[in-house]
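HUMAN: Mind making up another protein with tokenized structure?

ASSISTANT:
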Amino acid sequence: MRLALKWMMALLAVAATCSAASATTSSKRINDIVNTRCSTCHGPTGQSSNAEFPKLAGQNADYLIRQMFNFKSRARKSNEMEKEMAGLSGNDIEELASYFSLQQLVPVPRQDKALIEAGRSLYMAGDPERGISACAVCHGPKARGGKLLPRLAGQHAKYLELQLRNFLEHSRTTDQMLMHSVASKMTDDEILAVSYFLSGLD
């Protein structure tokens, strides 16, 4: 009985060692992918310094997974992202999404109170008379998004503005088709105000 127990304990110890080694190997691979493929544009922790590239830190993991697969399949067009996704497995993509989702996002403090309030008003209430839905209905009152909807809070204003214009021009065709309708009814000033407001949210 004691011998059997010793064998069982030994097997459990070996299994634990193998599991830890596997986790370490996986973590090293993800760090290597981040450093060689992601960090130039998005930063090593997903806090990109170039406002035309999105912050990935704190983004919803399921949303990141969906977007990476969209780039990989070319459902969402980007020559650069398609190249970076090449050769990555589904497991790589899931682990990258988990890594970036756990990083701390740093919002940019905003000073223009009038622009903030204009953006807040449109985000929270929309403009029913012009058929503009409130952004908060889908993305939440704190702009944290959901399972497959992006977190907008703390994102670069410039990047948000670019994406809204892409939806307006129908050059971005994945995700919610509702965005095409909403963006097409927004003025340039409204796109700027909403983007500015969201970039300052924590």
